[in-house]
Amino acid sequence: MIIFYCLHLYLDVEITLATSGAIGSTILGQDLAPQFDEPYLSNSLEEFWGRRWNLVVTSILRSTVYEPVCCISTPILGKKFGPLPGVFLTFVVSGLMHDKVVKKSTNNRWELNPWVSRVLTIGFLSSTAVWLLFPQIVRNEVDMKVLSEYDIMVEFCKNKLILLLGKPVRNPYAAQ
């Protein structure tokens, strides 16, 4: 169940961002930078956060850390020095979130095979999600709510398909 939820979450983010990017690109008439680039092919946590997932993280850090801290510190420190605490705290939070906490410095003395690195990266991200994210999902029964919504969606799609094919439609909400 957790594996399906991970796939659902990834595909949901991928489809939502791709759709909104296509709409924005069409409206603006310009190519927009992708929000992420195949994060499952990352060779390290640094690559995952820095080059494959970072655009989403950057916008989140800007709106949740940098801008609020700047709003608080600018009236106190002035326009020139007000953003400095925001920049500093953003880097601190980013460093805690990113691989600098868990990555050992190798000074480029050796590198792992890219496939081994990918497996280790995905393994770390998966184990972190299982440890921090999924207990709350199961405790709040979000997984069961998602399954019931999938059932409703499947019934809806079946009924629409039957309508298109011209066969009689059974009302799933009628009293049995």
TrEMBL record:
Q: Where is the signal peptide?
A: 1-18
Write out the similarity annotation: Belongs to the wax synthase family.
Record's GO cellular component terms: membrane
* Taxonomic lineage of the native organism: Eukaryota, Viridiplantae, Streptophyta, Embryophyta, Tracheophyta
Pathway where this protein functions: Secondary metabolite biosynthesis
Designated name of the protein: Wax synthase domain-containing protein
Instruction: Kindly indicate whether the keyword Amino-acid biosynthesis belongs to this entry.
Output: no
Keywords associated with the record: Acyltransferase, Membrane, Signal, Transferase, Transmembrane, Transmembrane helix
